[in-house]
Amino acid sequence: MAAIPSHTNNQASTAAVPNDGNASGRSFGATEIEMLREVLERGTLVSQAGPVVPQLERAFAKWVGAAHCTAVSSGTAALHTAIAAVDPKPGDEIISSPITDMGAVMPILYQGAIPVFADVDPRTCNVTPASIETQITKRTCAIIVTHLFGNPVDMDAVMAIAKKHNLKVIEDAAQGFGATYKDRLVGTLGDIGCFSLQQGKHITCGEGGLVVTNDDKTARFMKLYHDKAWPFGEENPDHEFLALNYRMTELQGAVALAQMGRLDEFVQHRREMAARLTAAIQDIDGLVCPCDAADSTNVHWRYALRVESPLTNADLDRLSSALREMGARTAPRYTQKLAFEYGFIKNRRMFGDSGYPFVGPQRDGATEPLYDRAAFPGAVEGLQRLLCIAMNERFDAATIDRIAATIREVIKSK
Length: 414
What we know:
The chain has 414 residues and is α/β, with parallel strands linked by helices. It has a domain at 30-261: Type I PLP-dependent aspartate aminotransferase-like (Major domain) (Aspartate Aminotransferase, domain 2, 3-Layer(aba) Sandwich), CATH 3.40.640.10. The protein is built from 13 helices and 14 strands. The chain has helices at 30-42, 52-64, 75-85, 106-110, 129-134, 155-165, 216-225, 250-260, 263-281, 313-325, 343-346, 377-384, 397-412, and strands spanning 68-72, 93-96, 114-117, 140-146, 168-172, 180-181, 184-185, 192-196, 209-213, 287-288, 296-297, 302-307, 330-332, 386-390. The strands form three sheets. It has a seven-stranded mixed β-sheet with strand order 1-9-8-5-4-2-3, sandwiched between helices. It has a four-stranded antiparallel β-sheet with strand order 10-12-14-13. Helix 3 packs across helix 7 (216-225). The radius of gyration is 22 Å and the shape is globular. 47% of the residues are buried.
Protein backbone atom coordinates (compact mmCIF):
# COMPACT_ATOMS: atom_id res chain seq x y z
CA MET A 1 0.00 0.00 0.00
CA ALA A 2 2.96 2.36 0.44
CA ALA A 3 3.00 2.79 -3.33
CA ILE A 4 -0.10 4.99 -3.29
CA PRO A 5 1.47 8.13 -1.79
CA SER A 6 4.72 7.72 -3.73
CA HIS A 7 3.59 10.24 -6.34
CA THR A 8 4.19 12.98 -3.79
CA ASN A 9 7.47 14.07 -2.33
CA ASN A 10 8.59 12.61 0.98
CA GLN A 11 6.72 14.78 3.40
CA ALA A 12 8.60 16.76 5.98
CA SER A 13 6.96 17.62 9.26
CA THR A 14 5.58 20.87 7.80
CA ALA A 15 4.33 19.41 4.51
CA ALA A 16 0.71 19.91 3.53
CA VAL A 17 -1.73 17.15 4.35
CA PRO A 18 -3.16 15.56 1.18
CA ASN A 19 -6.57 17.05 0.40
CA ASP A 20 -9.16 15.07 -1.59
CA GLY A 21 -10.47 18.33 -3.01
CA ASN A 22 -7.46 18.56 -5.31
CA ALA A 23 -4.64 16.52 -6.86
CA SER A 24 -2.71 16.26 -3.60
CA GLY A 25 -5.30 13.84 -2.24
CA ARG A 26 -6.56 12.15 -5.39
CA SER A 27 -4.88 9.57 -7.59
CA PHE A 28 -5.51 10.45 -11.23
CA GLY A 29 -2.97 9.41 -13.79
CA ALA A 30 -2.22 8.02 -17.21
CA THR A 31 -5.12 5.55 -17.24
CA GLU A 32 -7.76 8.25 -16.65
CA ILE A 33 -6.15 10.50 -19.25
CA GLU A 34 -5.97 7.74 -21.83
CA MET A 35 -9.58 6.68 -21.31
CA LEU A 36 -10.75 10.30 -21.55
CA ARG A 37 -8.74 10.72 -24.76
CA GLU A 38 -10.38 7.65 -26.26
CA VAL A 39 -13.85 8.99 -25.43
CA LEU A 40 -13.10 12.39 -26.91
CA GLU A 41 -11.59 10.90 -30.06
CA ARG A 42 -14.64 8.69 -30.44
CA GLY A 43 -16.77 11.82 -30.10
CA THR A 44 -19.72 10.07 -28.44
CA LEU A 45 -20.16 11.63 -25.02
CA VAL A 46 -23.69 10.42 -24.27
CA SER A 47 -23.94 7.07 -22.53
CA GLN A 48 -26.98 6.01 -24.53
CA ALA A 49 -24.67 5.36 -27.47
CA GLY A 50 -21.20 5.03 -25.95
CA PRO A 51 -19.49 1.87 -24.69
CA VAL A 52 -17.80 3.15 -21.51
CA VAL A 53 -20.69 3.68 -19.10
CA PRO A 54 -22.17 0.25 -19.88
CA GLN A 55 -18.71 -1.20 -19.26
CA LEU A 56 -18.56 0.63 -15.90
CA GLU A 57 -21.99 -0.74 -14.97
CA ARG A 58 -20.93 -4.31 -15.73
CA ALA A 59 -17.63 -3.90 -13.88
CA PHE A 60 -19.21 -2.42 -10.78
CA ALA A 61 -22.01 -4.99 -10.66
CA LYS A 62 -19.37 -7.72 -10.77
CA TRP A 63 -17.19 -6.02 -8.16
CA VAL A 64 -19.99 -5.45 -5.67
CA GLY A 65 -21.69 -8.79 -6.31
CA ALA A 66 -25.00 -7.55 -7.70
CA ALA A 67 -26.91 -8.69 -10.74
CA HIS A 68 -27.61 -5.19 -12.06
CA CYS A 69 -26.06 -1.71 -11.93
CA THR A 70 -27.19 1.61 -13.37
CA ALA A 71 -24.74 4.52 -13.47
CA VAL A 72 -26.25 7.94 -12.85
CA SER A 73 -25.17 11.56 -12.62
CA SER A 74 -24.71 11.85 -8.83
CA GLY A 75 -25.11 10.08 -5.52
CA THR A 76 -28.33 12.04 -4.98
CA ALA A 77 -29.56 10.80 -8.36
CA ALA A 78 -28.77 7.23 -7.25
CA LEU A 79 -30.90 7.65 -4.13
CA HIS A 80 -33.70 9.37 -6.06
CA THR A 81 -33.72 6.53 -8.57
CA ALA A 82 -33.87 3.98 -5.76
CA ILE A 83 -36.65 5.83 -3.92
CA ALA A 84 -38.67 6.09 -7.13
CA ALA A 85 -38.24 2.35 -7.61
CA VAL A 86 -39.97 1.52 -4.31
CA ASP A 87 -42.90 3.49 -5.79
CA PRO A 88 -44.19 5.45 -2.79
CA LYS A 89 -47.69 6.85 -3.02
CA PRO A 90 -48.25 10.49 -2.02
CA GLY A 91 -48.18 10.71 1.74
CA ASP A 92 -46.34 7.41 2.26
CA GLU A 93 -43.49 7.41 4.77
CA ILE A 94 -39.84 6.43 4.34
CA ILE A 95 -37.66 5.95 7.41
CA SER A 96 -34.12 7.35 7.28
CA SER A 97 -31.33 8.54 9.54
CA PRO A 98 -31.34 12.00 11.14
CA ILE A 99 -27.56 12.14 10.51
CA THR A 100 -27.31 12.15 6.74
CA ASP A 101 -26.68 14.27 3.69
CA MET A 102 -29.73 16.03 2.28
CA GLY A 103 -29.23 13.97 -0.87
CA ALA A 104 -30.88 11.13 1.06
CA VAL A 105 -33.83 13.27 2.22
CA MET A 106 -34.77 15.58 -0.64
CA PRO A 107 -35.57 12.73 -3.07
CA ILE A 108 -38.10 11.35 -0.57
CA LEU A 109 -39.97 14.66 -0.71
CA TYR A 110 -39.65 14.94 -4.50
CA GLN A 111 -41.47 11.60 -4.74
CA GLY A 112 -44.30 12.97 -2.58
CA ALA A 113 -43.37 10.91 0.45
CA ILE A 114 -42.64 11.96 4.03
CA PRO A 115 -39.21 11.46 5.64
CA VAL A 116 -39.44 9.90 9.09
CA PHE A 117 -36.34 9.51 11.22
CA ALA A 118 -35.02 6.76 13.49
CA ASP A 119 -32.57 7.43 16.29
CA VAL A 120 -28.95 6.28 16.19
CA ASP A 121 -26.36 4.60 18.34
CA PRO A 122 -24.35 7.55 19.72
CA ARG A 123 -21.10 5.58 19.43
CA THR A 124 -21.44 4.86 15.69
CA CYS A 125 -24.09 7.41 14.62
CA ASN A 126 -25.72 4.57 12.65
CA VAL A 127 -29.47 4.01 12.94
CA THR A 128 -30.48 1.26 15.34
CA PRO A 129 -32.91 -1.47 14.30
CA ALA A 130 -34.93 -0.99 17.50
CA SER A 131 -35.43 2.71 16.73
CA ILE A 132 -36.42 1.93 13.15
CA GLU A 133 -39.18 -0.38 14.34
CA THR A 134 -40.67 2.28 16.64
CA GLN A 135 -41.13 4.59 13.63
CA ILE A 136 -43.06 2.13 11.45
CA THR A 137 -46.70 3.01 10.74
CA LYS A 138 -49.29 1.75 8.28
CA ARG A 139 -47.97 4.37 5.84
CA THR A 140 -44.33 3.21 5.93
CA CYS A 141 -43.18 1.80 2.60
CA ALA A 142 -39.38 1.69 2.86
CA ILE A 143 -36.32 2.07 5.07
CA ILE A 144 -33.12 3.85 4.07
CA VAL A 145 -30.05 2.80 6.06
CA THR A 146 -26.93 4.93 5.88
CA HIS A 147 -23.60 3.18 6.44
CA LEU A 148 -22.14 6.34 7.95
CA PHE A 149 -18.44 6.95 7.30
CA GLY A 150 -18.25 3.46 5.75
CA ASN A 151 -19.19 1.64 8.97
CA PRO A 152 -21.92 -0.96 8.30
CA VAL A 153 -25.31 -0.90 10.00
CA ASP A 154 -26.56 -4.09 11.71
CA MET A 155 -28.20 -5.36 8.53
CA ASP A 156 -29.46 -8.73 9.78
CA ALA A 157 -31.68 -7.01 12.30
CA VAL A 158 -32.81 -4.36 9.80
CA MET A 159 -33.72 -6.96 7.20
CA ALA A 160 -35.65 -9.00 9.77
CA ILE A 161 -37.73 -5.92 10.63
CA ALA A 162 -38.28 -5.16 6.94
CA LYS A 163 -39.44 -8.71 6.27
CA LYS A 164 -41.77 -8.63 9.27
CA HIS A 165 -43.44 -5.44 8.02
CA ASN A 166 -43.11 -6.12 4.27
CA LEU A 167 -40.89 -3.09 3.65
CA LYS A 168 -38.22 -2.37 1.05
CA VAL A 169 -34.69 -1.53 2.22
CA ILE A 170 -32.45 0.95 0.42
CA GLU A 171 -28.80 1.04 1.47
CA ASP A 172 -27.13 4.42 1.29
CA ALA A 173 -23.59 3.16 0.73
CA ALA A 174 -22.29 6.48 -0.63
CA GLN A 175 -19.49 6.38 1.96
CA GLY A 176 -19.22 2.60 2.06
CA PHE A 177 -17.23 1.35 -0.94
CA GLY A 178 -15.72 -1.96 0.12
CA ALA A 179 -17.29 -2.11 3.59
CA THR A 180 -18.45 -5.61 4.47
CA TYR A 181 -21.08 -7.10 6.73
CA LYS A 182 -20.71 -10.82 7.35
CA ASP A 183 -18.46 -11.14 4.29
CA ARG A 184 -20.90 -9.37 1.95
CA LEU A 185 -20.27 -5.93 0.54
CA VAL A 186 -22.67 -3.25 1.75
CA GLY A 187 -25.10 -2.19 -0.94
CA THR A 188 -26.04 -5.82 -1.68
CA LEU A 189 -27.75 -6.66 1.62
CA GLY A 190 -30.96 -4.73 1.06
CA ASP A 191 -33.22 -4.48 -1.98
CA ILE A 192 -31.29 -1.59 -3.58
CA GLY A 193 -27.82 -0.16 -2.94
CA CYS A 194 -26.67 3.38 -3.73
CA PHE A 195 -23.11 4.64 -4.14
CA SER A 196 -21.59 8.07 -4.79
CA LEU A 197 -18.68 9.06 -7.04
CA GLN A 198 -18.53 12.63 -5.73
CA GLN A 199 -15.17 14.37 -5.39
CA GLY A 200 -14.36 13.15 -1.90
CA LYS A 201 -15.49 9.53 -2.03
CA HIS A 202 -13.27 6.45 -2.15
CA ILE A 203 -13.20 6.72 -5.94
CA THR A 204 -14.47 9.68 -7.92
CA CYS A 205 -15.32 11.19 -11.28
CA GLY A 206 -16.26 14.55 -9.73
CA GLU A 207 -19.95 13.76 -9.58
CA GLY A 208 -21.66 10.47 -10.31
CA GLY A 209 -23.53 7.61 -8.73
CA LEU A 210 -24.16 3.90 -9.01
CA VAL A 211 -27.35 2.07 -8.04
CA VAL A 212 -27.46 -1.73 -7.78
CA THR A 213 -30.02 -4.46 -7.25
CA ASN A 214 -30.51 -8.19 -7.69
CA ASP A 215 -34.16 -7.87 -8.70
CA ASP A 216 -34.82 -7.88 -12.45
CA LYS A 217 -38.05 -5.84 -12.26
CA THR A 218 -36.47 -3.20 -10.02
CA ALA A 219 -33.43 -3.04 -12.29
CA ARG A 220 -35.58 -2.39 -15.36
CA PHE A 221 -37.48 0.38 -13.56
CA MET A 222 -34.28 2.08 -12.44
CA LYS A 223 -32.72 1.81 -15.89
CA LEU A 224 -35.81 3.50 -17.30
CA TYR A 225 -36.10 6.06 -14.53
CA HIS A 226 -32.60 7.45 -15.04
CA ASP A 227 -33.41 8.18 -18.69
CA LYS A 228 -36.90 9.69 -18.75
CA ALA A 229 -38.52 6.24 -18.71
CA TRP A 230 -37.64 5.58 -22.35
CA PRO A 231 -36.77 1.90 -22.99
CA PHE A 232 -33.97 2.15 -25.55
CA GLY A 233 -33.59 -1.01 -27.56
CA GLU A 234 -37.05 -2.35 -26.78
CA GLU A 235 -39.83 -2.79 -29.33
CA ASN A 236 -42.30 0.11 -29.65
CA PRO A 237 -40.61 2.32 -27.03
CA ASP A 238 -42.55 5.05 -25.24
CA HIS A 239 -42.08 7.20 -22.15
CA GLU A 240 -43.64 4.78 -19.68
CA PHE A 241 -43.93 6.95 -16.57
CA LEU A 242 -42.84 10.27 -15.08
CA ALA A 243 -39.05 10.27 -14.77
CA LEU A 244 -35.94 12.41 -15.04
CA ASN A 245 -32.68 12.54 -16.99
CA TYR A 246 -30.03 11.28 -14.60
CA ARG A 247 -27.67 9.86 -17.23
CA MET A 248 -23.95 9.70 -16.57
CA THR A 249 -21.77 10.98 -19.42
CA GLU A 250 -19.10 8.90 -21.11
CA LEU A 251 -16.50 11.34 -19.76
CA GLN A 252 -17.60 10.65 -16.18
CA GLY A 253 -17.75 6.95 -16.95
CA ALA A 254 -14.19 6.92 -18.29
CA VAL A 255 -12.76 8.44 -15.12
CA ALA A 256 -14.88 6.22 -12.86
CA LEU A 257 -13.91 3.08 -14.76
CA ALA A 258 -10.23 3.96 -14.53
CA GLN A 259 -10.59 4.62 -10.81
CA MET A 260 -12.29 1.26 -10.30
CA GLY A 261 -9.08 -0.48 -11.26
CA ARG A 262 -7.55 0.76 -8.00
CA LEU A 263 -10.62 0.68 -5.75
CA ASP A 264 -9.56 -2.34 -3.69
CA GLU A 265 -6.12 -0.80 -3.24
CA PHE A 266 -7.56 2.54 -2.11
CA VAL A 267 -9.94 0.90 0.36
CA GLN A 268 -7.23 -1.26 1.91
CA HIS A 269 -4.89 1.70 2.21
CA ARG A 270 -7.51 3.74 4.08
CA ARG A 271 -8.02 0.85 6.47
CA GLU A 272 -4.27 0.57 7.09
CA MET A 273 -3.88 4.29 7.71
CA ALA A 274 -6.89 4.34 10.05
CA ALA A 275 -5.44 1.39 11.96
CA ARG A 276 -2.12 3.22 12.29
CA LEU A 277 -3.82 6.31 13.71
CA THR A 278 -5.86 4.22 16.12
CA ALA A 279 -2.76 2.42 17.36
CA ALA A 280 -1.09 5.78 18.00
CA ILE A 281 -3.87 7.45 20.02
CA GLN A 282 -6.16 4.76 21.44
CA ASP A 283 -4.47 4.89 24.85
CA ILE A 284 -5.53 8.52 25.38
CA ASP A 285 -8.22 8.69 28.04
CA GLY A 286 -11.39 10.18 26.57
CA LEU A 287 -10.72 9.37 22.90
CA VAL A 288 -12.82 6.60 21.36
CA CYS A 289 -11.40 5.50 18.01
CA PRO A 290 -13.50 4.00 15.19
CA CYS A 291 -13.24 0.25 14.86
CA ASP A 292 -14.70 -2.76 13.10
CA ALA A 293 -17.89 -4.07 14.63
CA ALA A 294 -18.32 -7.84 14.92
CA ASP A 295 -18.44 -9.44 11.46
CA SER A 296 -17.97 -6.05 9.76
CA THR A 297 -15.24 -3.99 8.14
CA ASN A 298 -15.16 -0.19 8.37
CA VAL A 299 -13.70 1.57 5.32
CA HIS A 300 -13.21 4.97 6.98
CA TRP A 301 -14.56 7.50 4.51
CA ARG A 302 -13.83 9.80 7.42
CA TYR A 303 -11.95 8.92 10.61
CA ALA A 304 -14.80 9.32 13.11
CA LEU A 305 -13.14 10.11 16.43
CA ARG A 306 -15.26 10.47 19.56
CA VAL A 307 -14.24 12.86 22.32
CA GLU A 308 -15.75 11.75 25.62
CA SER A 309 -15.30 12.33 29.36
CA PRO A 310 -12.94 13.25 30.92
CA LEU A 311 -12.38 15.34 27.78
CA THR A 312 -14.89 18.08 27.02
CA ASN A 313 -16.48 19.87 24.09
CA ALA A 314 -13.84 22.55 24.52
CA ASP A 315 -11.18 19.88 24.03
CA LEU A 316 -12.94 18.71 20.88
CA ASP A 317 -12.77 22.24 19.50
CA ARG A 318 -9.10 22.57 20.49
CA LEU A 319 -8.29 19.32 18.70
CA SER A 320 -10.14 20.43 15.59
CA SER A 321 -8.39 23.81 15.49
CA ALA A 322 -4.94 22.31 16.03
CA LEU A 323 -5.45 19.71 13.32
CA ARG A 324 -6.63 22.37 10.89
CA GLU A 325 -3.60 24.50 11.70
CA MET A 326 -1.30 21.62 10.76
CA GLY A 327 -3.22 21.15 7.50
CA ALA A 328 -5.69 18.36 8.23
CA ARG A 329 -9.34 18.83 7.31
CA THR A 330 -11.79 18.32 10.15
CA ALA A 331 -15.54 18.51 10.66
CA PRO A 332 -16.34 18.99 14.35
CA ARG A 333 -19.78 17.51 15.08
CA TYR A 334 -20.09 16.56 11.39
CA THR A 335 -23.44 17.90 10.11
CA GLN A 336 -24.08 19.67 13.45
CA LYS A 337 -27.79 19.78 12.57
CA LEU A 338 -30.15 16.83 12.46
CA ALA A 339 -31.77 16.28 9.07
CA PHE A 340 -35.13 17.78 10.02
CA GLU A 341 -33.51 20.96 11.40
CA TYR A 342 -32.56 22.36 7.99
CA GLY A 343 -34.52 25.40 6.89
CA PHE A 344 -36.35 23.92 3.92
CA ILE A 345 -37.92 21.23 6.13
CA LYS A 346 -38.60 23.48 9.13
CA ASN A 347 -40.19 26.12 6.88
CA ARG A 348 -41.55 23.59 4.35
CA ARG A 349 -40.15 25.58 1.47
CA MET A 350 -41.10 23.17 -1.27
CA PHE A 351 -43.73 23.01 -4.01
CA GLY A 352 -44.64 26.68 -3.68
CA ASP A 353 -46.56 27.47 -0.53
CA SER A 354 -48.68 24.32 -0.76
CA GLY A 355 -47.13 22.52 2.20
CA TYR A 356 -47.12 19.39 0.02
CA PRO A 357 -46.49 16.55 0.77
CA PHE A 358 -47.03 17.31 4.47
CA VAL A 359 -50.38 18.97 3.81
CA GLY A 360 -53.20 17.58 1.71
CA PRO A 361 -55.73 14.77 1.51
CA GLN A 362 -52.91 12.23 1.09
CA ARG A 363 -52.10 12.81 4.78
CA ASP A 364 -55.64 12.75 6.17
CA GLY A 365 -55.59 10.89 9.46
CA ALA A 366 -51.80 10.55 9.51
CA THR A 367 -49.74 11.38 12.56
CA GLU A 368 -47.46 14.39 12.12
CA PRO A 369 -43.85 13.20 11.75
CA LEU A 370 -41.76 13.71 14.87
CA TYR A 371 -39.20 16.42 14.14
CA ASP A 372 -38.18 17.20 17.70
CA ARG A 373 -34.52 17.18 18.72
CA ALA A 374 -35.44 15.91 22.17
CA ALA A 375 -36.80 12.71 20.62
CA PHE A 376 -33.38 11.76 19.22
CA PRO A 377 -31.01 11.64 22.19
CA GLY A 378 -28.66 9.19 20.47
CA ALA A 379 -28.22 11.48 17.48
CA VAL A 380 -27.77 14.58 19.62
CA GLU A 381 -25.15 12.91 21.79
CA GLY A 382 -23.49 11.29 18.78
CA LEU A 383 -22.95 14.59 16.97
CA GLN A 384 -21.96 16.49 20.09
CA ARG A 385 -18.97 14.21 20.71
CA LEU A 386 -17.90 13.61 17.10
CA LEU A 387 -14.75 14.88 15.42
CA CYS A 388 -14.43 13.80 11.78
CA ILE A 389 -10.95 13.81 10.29
CA ALA A 390 -10.83 13.69 6.49
CA MET A 391 -8.82 10.85 4.96
CA ASN A 392 -7.86 9.86 1.44
CA GLU A 393 -5.69 7.33 -0.35
CA ARG A 394 -2.69 9.68 -0.50
CA PHE A 395 -2.20 9.68 3.27
CA ASP A 396 1.04 7.98 4.26
CA ALA A 397 2.61 6.91 7.55
CA ALA A 398 4.28 10.30 8.00
CA THR A 399 0.98 12.13 7.61
CA ILE A 400 -0.74 9.85 10.09
CA ASP A 401 2.12 10.22 12.57
CA ARG A 402 1.90 14.02 12.33
CA ILE A 403 -1.84 13.90 13.01
CA ALA A 404 -1.29 11.59 15.98
CA ALA A 405 1.48 13.81 17.36
CA THR A 406 -0.77 16.87 17.08
CA ILE A 407 -3.56 15.11 18.93
CA ARG A 408 -1.21 13.99 21.70
CA GLU A 409 0.27 17.47 22.05
CA VAL A 410 -3.18 19.07 22.41
CA ILE A 411 -4.24 16.60 25.09
CA LYS A 412 -0.89 16.90 26.89
CA SER A 413 -1.20 20.69 27.04
CA LYS A 414 -4.71 20.55 28.51
